[in-house]
Design brief:
Nucleotidyltransferase, domain 5; 21% strand; five-stranded mixed sheet; single chain; alpha/beta; 5 strands
């Protein structure tokens, strides 16, 4: 059995090694944000997944504005390693502005129900949200969720 303490201690090293060995992501990405409460504070969990359901990047931020979207987009583009062909988001205005600035050649889809894949990817986090509330800092949650995403990508059966 693996405890939360062991994940916090060894998770970042293990996640970094898994990311280095990762073969690559697809060319269609789904981006979404959801709020979570940690220690009584409302924070926003930004997530990017590819067409196979693999988590490309996950980031926890205090805001949900254009500056936060730009920070997440830049980080996401660094992690995906290749130019996206299509980006699917909800209708948050910040996504459109940042998309036009950073990747104007990519198709930007904001149609209804198109982003369901990203919305569904938040469910495992929602299930663990009670445990996440026990973390003391935003950094702890970020490290835990990155390690969890890397391990869940390892067991993702969507890509064959």
């Amino acid at each position: 059995m693996v405890t939360h303490e062991s994940i916090l201690l060894f998770g970042p090293r293990y996640a970094k090694k898994l990311k280095r060995q990762h073969q690559g992501y697809g060319d269609t990405f789904f981006l979404d944000e959801v709020y979570v409460k940690i220690q009584g504070k409302q924070l926003y969990l930004w997530r990017a997944i590819d067409q196979d359901g693999e988590v490309v990047d996950i980031m926890l931020q205090a805001r949900r504005d254009g500056k936060a979207a730009r920070r997440f987009f830049k980080r996401f583009l660094n992690n995906c390693r290749n130019e996206p062909r299509k980006i699917v988001t909800d209708k948050l205005r910040s996504y459109g502005v940042v998309h036009r600035e950073l990747v104007p050649d990519a198709i930007h889809d904001t149609s209804q129900y198109a982003n369901n894949r990203a919305e569904l990817s938040h469910q495992p986090t929602r299930v663990r949200e009670r445990g996440i509330r026990r973390f003391k800092s935003m950094g702890q949650v970020q490290r835990f969720l990155e390690a969890h995403a890397a391990v869940s990508n390892l067991f993702n059966l969507g890509r064959l």
